[in-house]
C-alpha cells in the first residue's frame, strides 16, 4: 500500500526534544511504579506490615492500570492530549507526596491506586502522541526513544532510589520522586506542541468514531497476542533466581551479574528496535515473536554449560528489549489515526495483564510442577502468540487498503500534532 508521508515534518530538533521529554515523563512515572520493590524492607518495617503486603503494592498497581487505562482514555478523548498528559503527571506527583506522608498501610494503598490510574492514562497517550509527531517511516524510532524512559527507570531510577533510601529514608525518596514528576510536568508544558482537542478537529471524509473504528479489531487481536508473549516471558523472568541457581547451576552470588547482562543486552534490543520496525513494518513483530519463542525454548538448555547459559540470557535480554517497542510501533501502524488513543490504552491494558498473568502462572508452575516446567510452558505460550502474529500479519497484508479512519492510513495534515 502506498503511503503519503509529506504531511508531517521529519525528525527535527523540536521532534527530538518532544520525544525525549516524553521519555523523561515515562522515566519518572515508571520509577514511581517500581520503587516499592527496592524500598520493600524499610517500608514494611516503618508501617508495621509484612514484606508481602508491600509487594502487593506492585500487583495492585498493575491491576489498576489494566482496569482504568481504557475508561480514562475514553473519558478524556475530547481534551487536548498535552493537557491530559500534564494532568496525569501532576496527579502522579500529588499521589507520590501523599504516599510519602501516609501514616499507615491503607492510605499508602489509596495513594498507589491514584498514582496507578494516572500512570495508566499517561501511558495510554505517550506512544500515540509520539507517533503523531513523526511520519510513518519513523514511528519505530519515535516509540523506541520514548521507551528509553521506562528502561532507564529500571536500570537507573530504582537502584538510585533504593540507595538513597538507605541514607534519607523511603519517605524522602518518594518526596524526591514527586519533585521529579513536577519537573517532568514543566518540561511537558515547555517542550511539547499544544495540539488541538481531538474532538474539535475537522473530521476527514470517511472517518468513523474511534469506538467503532474497524482497525481496533486487529489492534485488539495483536495486543492480546502481544500480552501472551509477555505471559511466557514473565513466567520465567519472575523466577530467574531459581533458574540461575537450580537449573544453570550457578552460585546465587552470580545472580547480580546475570541480571546486569540481561539489562545490558536489553538496552541493545531497544537500540535496534526502531530501525528494525521502520525497515520491516509488517514483518518485524511476527519475526521478533518467533525469535523470542526460540530463545525461551533455549532456556531449557541452561544446564548445558555456563557459557551457553550466559549466551541464552544475553539473547533473551535482547529479545525483551526488542519486543515492546516493535510491538507498540506495529499497533500504532495498525490503528487508524483517530483510534490511536484507544489503541494505546488497549496496549497498556494488555501489557499489564500479561505481566500479572505471567508472574501468577509462573508461581503456580514453580510450586506445583517445579522449576524445570517454567521454560517449556513459557516457550509454548510465546510460540502460540508468534503463530497468531504471523497469521494476523499475513491476513493484514492481504486485506484491501482501508478507508481513512479505518486504520492503516497516515493522518491528514489537520490531524497531526506536529511540533511548530
Features:
disordered C terminus; 75% helix; Growth Hormone, Chain: A; 14 helices; mainly alpha; 420 residues; 2 domains
Walk me through the topology.
Blueprint: H1 13-47, H2 51-75, H3 81-100, H4 105-132, H5 139-146, H6 148-168, H7 170-191, H8 215-237, H9 240-247, H10 255-279, H11 284-298, H12 306-334, H13 340-368, H14 374-398
Helix pairs in contact: 1-2, 1-4, 1-5, 1-6, 1-7, 2-4, 2-13, 3-4, 3-7, 4-5, 4-13, 5-10, 5-12, 6-7, 8-11, 8-12, 8-13, 8-14, 10-12, 11-12, 11-14
For the termini, the CA-CA separation is: 29 Å
Mass-distribution shape: globular
User: Helicity level, as a percent range?
Assistant: over 70%
Give me the CATH architecture of the largest domain, please. Up-down Bundle
Which stretches are poorly predicted, pLDDT < 50 over at least 5 residues? 1-8, 196-208, 401-420
Task: Write down the oligomeric state.
Answer: single chain
Short description:
The chain has 14 helices and no strands. It has helices at 13-47, 51-75, 81-100, 105-132, 139-146, 148-168, 170-191, 215-237, 240-247, 255-279, 284-298, 306-334, 340-368, 374-398. The protein has 420 residues and is mainly alpha-helical.
Any overview of this molecule?
This protein has 2 domains: 13-206, MFS general substrate transporter like domains (Growth Hormone, Chain: A, Up-down Bundle); 210-398, MFS general substrate transporter like domains (Growth Hormone, Chain: A, Up-down Bundle), CATH 1.20.1250.20. By secondary structure, it is mainly α. It contains 14 helices and no strands. Helices cover 75% and strands 0% of the residues. Residues 1-8, 196-208 and 401-420 have low confidence and may be disordered. The longest helix is centred in the first third of the chain and has 35 residues, at 13-47. The relative contact order is 0.16. It has helices at residues 13-47, 51-75, 81-100, 105-132, 139-146, 148-168, 170-191, 215-237, 240-247, 255-279, 284-298, 306-334, 340-368, 374-398. The protein starts with 12 loop residues before the first helix and ends in a 22-residue tail after the last helix. Helix 3 (81-100) runs antiparallel to helix 4 (105-132). The chain is globular, with a radius of gyration of 21 Å.
Amino acid at each position: 500500500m502506498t503511503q503519503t508521508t509529506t504531511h508531517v515534518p521529519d525528525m527535527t530538533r523540536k521532534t527530538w526534544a518532544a520525544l525525549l521529554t516524553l521519555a523523561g515523563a515515562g522515566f519518572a512515572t515508571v520509577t514511581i511504579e517500581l520503587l516499592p520493590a527496592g524500598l520493600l524492607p524499610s517500608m514494611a518495617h516503618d508501617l508495621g506490615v509484612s514484606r508481602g503486603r508491600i509487594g502487593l503494592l506492585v500487583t495492585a498497581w498493575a491491576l489498576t492500570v489494566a482496569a482504568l487505562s481504557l475508561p480514562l482514555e475514553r473519558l478524556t478523548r475530547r481534551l487536548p492530549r498535552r493537557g491530559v498528559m500534564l494532568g496525569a503527571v501532576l496527579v502522579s506527583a500529588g499521589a507520590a507526596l501523599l504516599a510519602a506522608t501516609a501514616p499507615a498501610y491503607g492510605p499508602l494503598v489509596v495513594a498507589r491506586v491514584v498514582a496507578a490510574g494516572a500512570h495508566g492514562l499517561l501511558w495510554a497517550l505517550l506512544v500515540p502522541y509520539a507517533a503523531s509527531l513523526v511520519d510513518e517511516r519513523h514511528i519505530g524510532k519515535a516509540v523506541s526513544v520514548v521507551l528509553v524512559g521506562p528502561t532507564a527507570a529500571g536500570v537507573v531510577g530504582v537502584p538510585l532510589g533504593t540507595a538513597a533510601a538507605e541514607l534519607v529514608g523511603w519517605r524522602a525518596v518518594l518526596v524526591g520522586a514527586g519533585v521529579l514528576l513536577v519537573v517532568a510536568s514543566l518540561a511537558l508544558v515547555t517542550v511539547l506542541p499544544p495540539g488541538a482537542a481531538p474532538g474539535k478537529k475537522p473530521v476527514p471524509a470517511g472517518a468513523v468514531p474511534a469506538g467503532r473504528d474497524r482497525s481496533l479489531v486487529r489492534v485488539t487481536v495483536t495486543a492480546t497476542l502481544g500480552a501472551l508473549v509477555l505471559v511466557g516471558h514473565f513466567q520465567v523472568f519472575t523466577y530467574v533466581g531459581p533458574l540461575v541457581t537450580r537449573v544453570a547451576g550457578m552460585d546465587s552470588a552470580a545472580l547480580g551479574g546475570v541480571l546486569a547482562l540481561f539489562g545490558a543486552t536489553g538496552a541493545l534490543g531497544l537500540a535496534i528496535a526502531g530501525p528494525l520496525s521502520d525497515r520491516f513494518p509488517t514483518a518485524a513483530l511476527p519475526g521478533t515473536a518467533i525469535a523470542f519463542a526460540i530463545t525461551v525454548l533455549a532456556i531449557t538448555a541452561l544446564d548445558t554449560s555456563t557459557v551457553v547459559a550466559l549466551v541464552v540470557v544475553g539473547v533473551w535480554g535482547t529479545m525483551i528489549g526488542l519486543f515492546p517497542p516493535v510491538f507498540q510501533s506495529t499497533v500504532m501502524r495498525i490503528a487508524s489515526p483517530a483510534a490511536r488513543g484507544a489503541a494505546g490504552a488497549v496496549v497498556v491494558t494488555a501489557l499489564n495483564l500479561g505481566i500479572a498473568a505471567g508472574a501468577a502462572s509462573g508461581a503456580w508452575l514453580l510450586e506445583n510442577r517445579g522449576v524445570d516446567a517454567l521454560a517449556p510452558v513459557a516457550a509454548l505460550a510465546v510460540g502460540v502468540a508468534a503463530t497468531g502474529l504471523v497469521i494476523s500479519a499475513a491476513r493484514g497484508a492481504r486485506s484491501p487498503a482501508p478507508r481513512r479512519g479505518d486504520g492503516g492510513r497516515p493522518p491528514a495534515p489537520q490531524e497531526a500534532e506536529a511540533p511548530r
